[in-house]
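Trying the structure run again after the queue cleared.
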Amino acid sequence: MIDPREICGPIAIIYRSHLGYMMTKLEDYRIGSREFDFLMTLYHTDGISQEGLAKALYVSKATSTRAIQSLEKEGYVYRQRDENDLRAYRVYLTEKGKETRDMILEKLISFVDTLLLDFTSEEKEIFRRLIRKASRKFHEL
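Done. Tokens:
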């Protein structure tokens, strides 16, 4: 049996490194280390509900609310009541939020490039397939 630390330890290191890297790179934009995930989701599904954001990112509703409020305060997003469910809010990107897309993608690409720097093309493809396969298990659960 494989020692779980041999898998979980490196995953945790990559995760923490990723958050630290993004926090540093986005500090001048006043975007927190977890908030860029919300923006990335909105780039694909602008107008998603707050609850939908929480589910998509596997975070609590409270965490989602705090991140959205912070992004709203900084002018990256705005909330609007859902016309079909007046208890719910939909979250939309502002122009400022839309303008950050390319910059955030550039930072993410830079991180991934560093992560995979010593990989061959074949290893990169294998890693991509394996990490997606592993994460799909949690989508199913």
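The longest helix spans residues 5-26. Worth checking whether this holds up in the mutant runs.
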